[in-house]
Specification:
Two copies of one chain form a homodimer. The first copy, chain A, is mainly alpha-helical. Helix content of chain A is about 75%, strand content about 0%. The first copy, chain A, has helices at about 1-10, 15-25, 30-40, 50-70, 85, 90-105, 115-135, 145-170, 175-200, 205, 215, 220-230, 235-245, 250-260, 260-280, 290-305; strands at about 75, 80. The interface of A and B includes residues 89, 105, 116, 126 and 135 of A.
């Protein structure tokens, strides 16, 4: 899959290949690609085209990362300078567009149109989620469901699409597709919840990317929502000031000083754990296999990761 | 086509629909959509799906505009505030992504995959062209062919794809497709050359968008290349200073003071005219029809536009 990904984002233009080489170094866990292959195998649906689909899913993920780093103003990703930092925001926008277009183009070469359909729909929903998230900045009173809908659109959608394609591609098999789609969505939401926790309590050197971004961007995540809900009005006012005060620096350390985040983190981790356990239980209806166990292990891994 | 475009970019999310309503006001000449329909009709290939393809092509164009305005730091488009100005760059990146994803998604609903293939390839080439353009900033000595290749990738590619799809969709008809693709490419390159001229000599109120952007961004366009090639070294040095000097303001009026741009503009306009005439002559092999004449008229329109 890795080789397919590298070969497929290769581009004859030197200016572009410099960049695709660079983002190739971002490649990390490749969980989404792995989900395509494992979901296919666990549901008895592995085809010759699954590795190509896995590479396309990873390429779409890479595009969202490159654009995400522009949106977040991030500087470091997996210990590699972000495209927006190494070149500039303009280049990062174009490179993300290039990766999206390349991914969609590759999906049109597959024998079934299912991948193009599922992935363009997933990409659209990811964008809608990000736009809604921007509209809900500084909203300390959004219901947990709203947070989860947005976090879901951001991350769970592509996990769900990867699992659904693994189980369904090239078509039919609606029941297996729905089962694995739900599995992927739950694991993806758990992943995002953990990600949001790491942005609050992780160390930059361990996480491998900038932390405290959500506070700088006014993104109110689950641990903060929980803490805010359960504290007094005076503390709430100080929390709001940390997020919204003009010229405030090092907002993350200030927030840590203003309020004890641990109960919020514990609440969020418990929610992530419940989502993973529910997802793991769901796929016990599949026949036992190494891949089914790997999917379960992947859920545990999401819970345990510190980077 | 306009109604299809509006209905198809509609989105249930309020945050997104505010923005799609806003960019709906950018809709201008819709030349690319018109090309799909006219190329279909002129080659005897109009199908029920042509209006949907036209709307998808316009949606992709809208996505490139929204991202382009981020890249250019533009403030006004067709007398309407740009998305990056009305909201922010982040939102503009996401909205562009949304429009791309929606367009690809709609193309996967068509009966033939040709549109998905041609349009994802065109989008990829547009991105590569923009990235190469960024890499060639401040290059006053690039050959005219290089300028045309980049200008072509930026604009001609989507004109060519629109015409090709009009003539070929749902498939086969390679000869008509190649003929109309060449027609669209030539007209599109002429359009970009005129656009580059307007950015140098147009008035903001007439053009309906900011002018002088290319100079601020270090984009060396055909009129400037020509003037630079035919002037003395002292003037060349002053031209370079206008583009590259730190803290220089109103670069466009300074450039006009440093060098007479008119010969470059005349050279570029002559090139645009030659491209249009060649394109018009090429489609005289098609049987006479109102649509064929409309395609020819559209070429004249590209030459005559001042906005």
């Amino acid at each position: 899959m890795r080789t397919i990904l590298e070969a497929q984002i290769a581009e004859s233009s030197r200016a572009v290949s410099d960049m695709t080489d660079h983002v190739g170094r971002f490649r990390g866990k490749q969980l989404r690609g792995a989900l395509v292959l494992l979901a296919g195998d666990a549901t008895g649906n592995a085809t010759d085209e699954h590795p190509a689909i896995a590479a396309i899913v990873e390429m779409i993920h890479l595009a969202t990362l490159v654009h995400d780093d522009v949106l977040d103003g991030a500087k470091v990703r997996r210990r590699v300078a972000c495209v927006n930092e190494r070149w500039d925001n303009q280049t990062a926008v174009l490179l993300g567009d290039f990766l999206y277009a390349r991914a969609f183009g590759l999906s049109t070469d597959l024998s079934s149109r299912l991948a193009s359909r599922v992935l363009s729909d997933a990409t659209r929903r990811i964008c809608v989620g990000e736009i809604e998230q921007a509209a809900l900045r500084y909203d300390f009173e959004m219901p947990q469901e709203t947070y989860e809908r947005i976090a879901g659109a951001k991350t769970a959608v592509l996990y769900g699409a990867a699992c659904e394609l693994g189980a369904r591609y090239p078509g039919g098999r609606d029941e297996a597709g729905a089962l694995l789609s739900q599995f992927g969505n739950s694991i993806g939401l758990a992943f995002q919840i953990i990600d949001d926790c790491l942005d609050l309590v992780g160390e930059e050197e361990v996480v491998g990317k900038s932390v405290g971004n959500d506070i700088e961007d006014g993104k109110i995540t689950l641990p903060v929502l929980h803490v805010y809900e359960h504290t007094d009005e005076a503390t709430r006012a100080r929390m709001r000031d940390v997020y919204t005060g003009v010229g405030v620096e090092k907002r993350l350390s200030k927030l840590r000083a203003v309020v004890e985040l641990r109960p919020g983190i514990e609440f969020a981790l418990a929610r992530a754990q419940a989502l993973v356990r529910e997802a793991q239980a769901r796929i016990q209806t599949l026949p036992p296999s190494t891949s089914r166990e790997a999917l379960c292990a992947l859920g545990d891994y999401v819970l345990e990761r510190s980077w």
